[in-house]
Amino acid sequence: MNEFSRWLAATEVSHTIQTTTWIIPTLQTIHILCVAAVFSAAILVDLRIWRLLERDQPLPEIARRFLPTIWPVLLILLVTGSLLIVGEPRRSLLNSTFYLKMALLVVAIALTAGLQRTISSSPNFWDRDLARRVAGRFAATVSILVWCGILFAGRWIAYTQAG
Ligand code: HEM
Q1: What is the pLDDT of residues 22-51, one digit of tens each?
Q2: Counting atoms of ligand 1 from 1, which one is nearest the CA of 158?
């Protein structure tokens, strides 16, 4: 990974990102706006599963309104995040916090996709009996913790980068 980071940092596109002052702040701004959108959408559904908000709206309606937003915005996060890496490869690619963030992201994606699939195939899936309600709240709690972990790890990269 050291060799690859060195090679990536020497490419023309990396050099352009490094030397054009507005590119990194612009990518960071887009990244953080997308973080806000994805985080809000996921957390709103999780809080609805806990019945802490929008109790008068059925869960399938809340899920249908917010979850589909997550996928295209994740794509923008992937593009902006990848360009940030191209601009400063060592900062992330040689940093275990970055890999922690990616691992948490895989868990968050699996949970969100699972939630979306179960609700769209069977609208009262998480409300059928007590066991399902408890399982739903457990999944929602894990989802909240994992999304918060991604935010924390995303910020933490700056403080744990290789020298
Ligand atoms: C989809 C793939 C993603 C990639 C490749 C990626 C990559 C990156 C990179 C390279 C940085 C800059 C870190 C630094 O140099 O300090 C960053 C920052 C950050 N990312 Fe991501 N990211 C992705 C998705 C996400 C998601 C889904 C979230 C949260 C929902 C997220 C939250 C953050 C946060 C909070 C920061 C710190 C921003 C700042 O301090 O300005 N990222 N990300």
Answers
A1: 999 999 999 999 999 999 999 999 999 999
A2: 16
